[in-house]
Structures are given as C-alpha cells and as structure tokens.
C-alpha cells in the first residue's frame, strides 16, 4: 500500500484514463510543482474531496488500517508544519493528549500508526482516553468507529457466539509478540465499562492470548 511518489502515480493513472477515453496527452507524466511557482498558468481540471473524517476514522478502526492512521496523524501535524513527518505527527498526538489531561508520562510514540517497535502506551492512559471520548462532543462518531464483537471489522470473531456478542465496541492491536484490546463493554444492567488489556513481549500464540482475554471479559460480565 506504500506509494513512493503519489504525485507521479496520479499523473500516470490520469494519463491512462484520458487515453482510454480517446484523448491525447503530450509530454511524459512526471511534472512536479515547485514551491512558489506561479499557479496562474495552471488550469484546474478537477477537485476531489475526501469522505468525512468520521468515515475515515471508522475505516481506520474497523480494518486496522495503519496507512490511514499514519495519514491522520500527519494531517493533524500539517496544520503546524507544511510537510509533516511521522515524528511530527506523533509529537502532535502526544502534545494534544497531554494538554487534555491524559497521563502521558510513561507513553512513547514514534509514529501515528503504532508500528514502531519502541512505541509504548499504558493501560491507564488508554482507559482515561476512552473515558474522555465517551463524554466528548464527538462520542457518537468515535463509538461507531469501533468494531463490534462478533459482528464487524477486526472483532468479527472476537467473543463470537457468546453473551458478549454485539456488546463490546473495541479496537484490537496485533503485532509479533503483542496482543491488545481496548474499548467499551455494555453490561446487562445498562452500565458501560471502559477497559484496556495490553500484552507485549510474549511468545504465546496470538490465538491463545485472544481466548484468555475473551474468558476474562466474560468472567467480569457474568
């Protein structure tokens, strides 16, 4: 999914589309706008607007789309830096949550997608963030962006065919030696609990860890 030169890829795809429609293209795709170049001589041929951020967030969380997650972090940082980097995106996220009272003292972020080996979060911080979002003005978009146990996204087979099917909205995280779940549990009495279970530096198979976490969640919601 990584494009080393998105602008060139767009130019090449556009050239092929124009030719397929019977049009003609002069020159070779590859022109790159230079900063400060006079835009008066350029002709606008298309404006494409993305889906709302709420839809992008849902796709990111449902499919665990690392490219989207990284792009969101860099986009947020781009409001301060014209061309933001992974480090600047991570710094922006850290600063934002620190300013909103999250306990970030033991947290480390090197990117926005969570793939850097040295990234570290605490269960305490994640639960506090979940609690904050549950009472925020963006609660509904946030809550609906999370996969549902036994029903959707990366949680399709998590707690499937149990009494918690459809009762857990959460984000999973899986890397070699790491397995985590964090989100919300809708309890029979109407209460909604926030939870975060983060497991790292383990050689236990991912499926075994998942079964243990499922057993634990079922036990506390009996």
Mean pLDDT: 91
Structural class determined from secondary elements: alpha+beta
Number of strands: 3
Largest sheet: 3 strands, antiparallel
Proportion of residues in β-strands: 5-15%
The best one-word shape is: elongated
Number of helical segments with 4 or more residues: 7
Unreliable spans: none
Specify the oligomeric state: single chain
The CA-CA distance between the termini, in Å, is 42 Å
Whole-angstrom Rg: 22 Å
What does this structure look like?
By secondary structure, the protein is of the alpha+beta class. Helix content is 39%, strand content 11%. It contains seven helices and three strands; from the N terminus they run ααααααβββα. The protein has helices at residues 6-20, 53-63, 66-78, 86-99, 123-134, 139-144, 206-220; strands at 168-175, 178-186, 192-199. A three-stranded antiparallel β-sheet has the order 1-2-3, with helices on both faces. A hairpin with a 5-residue loop joins strand 2 (178-186) and strand 3. Helix 2 runs antiparallel to helix 3 and helix 3 crosses helix 4 (86-99). It is elongated, with a radius of gyration of 22 Å. It starts with 5 loop residues before the first helix and ends with a helix. The mean pLDDT is 91.
């Amino acid at each position: 999914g990584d494009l080393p030169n998105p602008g060139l890829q767009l130019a090449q795809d556009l050239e092929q589309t124009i030719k397929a429609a019977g049009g003609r293209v002069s020159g070779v795709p590859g022109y790159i706008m230079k900063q400060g170049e006079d835009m008066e001589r350029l002709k606008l041929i298309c404006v494409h607007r993305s889906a709302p951020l709420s839809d992008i967030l849902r796709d990111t969380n449902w499919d665990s789309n690392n490219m989207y997650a990284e792009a969101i972090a860099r986009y947020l940082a781009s409001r301060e830096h014209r061309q933001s980097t992974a480090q600047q995106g991570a710094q922006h996220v850290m600063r934002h949550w620190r300013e909103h009272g999250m306990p970030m003292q033991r947290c480390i972020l090197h990117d926005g997608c969570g793939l850097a080996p040295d990234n570290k979060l605490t269960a305490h911080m994640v639960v506090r963030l979940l609690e904050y979002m549950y009472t925020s003005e963006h609660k509904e978009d946030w809550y609906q962006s999370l996969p549902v146990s036994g029903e959707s996204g990366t949680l399709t087979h998590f707690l499937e065919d149990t009494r918690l099917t459809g009762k857990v909205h959460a984000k999973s995280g899986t890397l070699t030696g790491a397995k985590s779940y964090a989100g919300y549990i809708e309890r029979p009495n109407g209460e909604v609990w926030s939870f975060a279970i983060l497991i790292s530096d383990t050689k236990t198979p991912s499926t075994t860890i998942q079964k243990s976490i499922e057993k634990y969640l079922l036990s506390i919601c009996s």
